[in-house]
Amino acid sequence: MLSNTQIKHVGKNGQVSLGKEYAEKQIQISKLSDGTLIIKPGKFIPDNELWLYTQNNIEKLDQAIKWAENAPRKETNLTELIN
Fold this sequence. Notes:
Blueprint lengths: L26 E5 L5 E5 L13 H16 L7 H5 L1
Antiparallel strand pairs: 1-2
Protein name: SpoVT-AbrB domain-containing protein
C-alpha cells in the first residue's frame, strides 16, 4: 500500500510542509492511540453544513436549482424588496 515514504521535520511552531501539491487543499489528520498520524487528502464537510446533505434537503436543493435554471428572469426593484 505504501508507495512513497518521506521523513519530515516538525518545526518549532508545530507545522509540517506537505509540498506544493497539497497547497490550498483540505486534509484530514487522524491520530491513532499509538501516536501514529494518518493524513488523508479529500473534501470534508464542516459540521455546520452537514444539514445540507440529508436526503430531504438534497431533494429540496435539487428542486430549487432546477426551478432557478428554468424560471423566467425578471428585473427586481430593490427599493420594493427592502420596504
